[in-house]
Write a structure and sequence with these properties.
Structural class: mainly beta
Number of strands: 10
Largest sheet: 5 strands, antiparallel
Number of domains: 1
Helix content: under 10%
Amino acid sequence: MSDKIEKKADEVKVMDNAAPAPEENSAVEYLTFLPPVDIFESNGIMKLLLDMPGTGASGVSVHIEDQVLKISGDTEMIDYGRSVRYKREFPISNELDTTGITAKIKDGVLEVILPKLDSAKVHKVQVSAG
């Protein structure tokens, strides 16, 4: 069976990119944006690709809290006199192995890999004749 990757629909959850707002209670004033994301699924993983230009590994945070994957990133870019902050949140299934999540950023694209638990993977059953 092929490990074909299918693109999944993106759900906007945090805020609208068209209306950035300064972050409250912060020493630095930020414009907060919802980064665009592509979500792919194969038999063994969920993969998220987030566009976060201007963000490096030291400025990115990826963590899970109450079954919610929380991603944020701060940049050195200045827009309207404020720094740029990216934030996204995704509810995650119990079928994902939260201890095996990996993340890397290259050229402003954050890749997050969420492996599925073995019990959630597709298992092929052989059918015999007779």
